[in-house]
Amino acid sequence: MVICGICNVNESKYKCPKCSVNYCSIVCFKGPAHTHVNIEENKTKREDPIVILKDELVGKFDKLLNDSEIQSMLKYKSLQFHLSVILKIINDPSITGESVLENRKEIANLKLTNLRSGGSEQNELVEDFVERVLFLLDEDR
């Protein structure tokens, strides 16, 4: 049994769509004690880690995107094609018939492995691209 988060007496039957507080009646929902305080707390809790993570990712990707070798390789249509296929495998469940994202990532990883040296679809440009990306990311450690 969940107790009303506003009056703390009755059993709650509903949940506020804005702040997710449990409440028992319209009287509690519309009363002065229901202030949506949790909304502001949740926003601050959610935004801070996202901003930090975004800054980290931007820094990592900036290094890759500003690298002259990466820029040069990305001009090749064949590399663009192979990278777009890998992204489609990850983002479009209809391509693989797999609804679970982790499984699609595994399929994309297998595709990338096949495109690298020694793989059944070996592509030198893909191998060079992956090696360069790994090298640049490894420099940050």
TrEMBL record:
Keyword Metal-binding appears in the UniProt entry: yes
Domain annotation HIT-type: ranges: 4-39
Keyword Metal-binding attributed: yes
PROSITE patterns linked: ZF_HIT
MF terms in GO: zinc ion binding
Keywords: Metal-binding, Zinc, Zinc-finger
Organism superkingdom: Eukaryota
Name under which the protein is recorded: HIT-type domain-containing protein
Organism of provenance: Debaryomyces fabryi
